[in-house]
Write a structure and sequence with these properties.
mainly alpha, Rna Polymerase Sigma Factor, Chain: A, Arc Repressor Mutant, subunit A, 2 domains, 9 helices, globular
């Protein structure tokens, strides 16, 4: 149903339906925000990135051509936007994921929230230590569900390089997180 529903939304959106655009936004907003937050390490900037992607998406109705899934298309747009933002701010210091807590979990109890927040902070700290390309590979594969071929195309590298970045990132994350547990 999801693919057919997306195709219907796209047809309506291309026909000028604002309601279809709003429905697409509502359907994928959370996934896009989570991806942007993980890639940007900044909740406010993640919101801006997703907003920018949807503004560009809304303006492209007349020339929009989506070969695969709508979700995959939007995730790729967000990843590209995040990459461009990270390149632009490379000279500045990386910011933590403090603001992404609100994006990641909206319905937890206070007790669950404390545990979730602590775990998120550990993961955020560990991810922030990775080189950007490795962090991007892990995030796109695990959070966005992209294949290594899609990641390779997005990063303009071979599939083996994308797999290697993913593997090295997981090894570093394991070492970092296991080291925290042993302390």
């Amino acid at each position: 149903m999801g693919v057919l529903e997306d195709k219907l939304f796209i047809v309506r959106f291309k026909g000028g339906s604002r309601a279809a655009l709003c429905r697409i936004y509502e359907k994928y907003r959370t996934d896009l925000l989570k991806l942007a937050a993980l890639l940007l390490n900044d909740g406010a900037e993640a919101e801006d990135a997703v907003h920018d992607v949807f503004v560009a998406f809304a303006r492209s109705a007349d020339r929009l051509r989506i070969g695969g899934s709508l979700k995959g298309y939007l995730l790729t747009c967000v990843a590209n936007n995040a990459r461009n933002r990270n390149r632009a701010k490379q000279h500045r210091q990386t910011v933590g994921l403090d603001e992404t807590d609100a994006v990641a979990c909206e319905s937890a109890t206070p007790e669950q929230w404390v545990t979730y927040s602590e775990e998120l902070q550990r993961w955020s700290d560990a991810l922030a230590q990775l080189p950007y390309e490795q962090r991007e590979a892990v995030t796109l594969h695990l959070r966005a569900g992209m294949t290594f071929r899609q990641i390779a195309e997005l990063q303009a590298v071979s599939v083996n390089t994308a797999k290697g970045r993913y593997r090295y990132a997981l090894e570093k994350l394991r070492a970092t997180l296991n080291g925290e547990l042993e302390r």
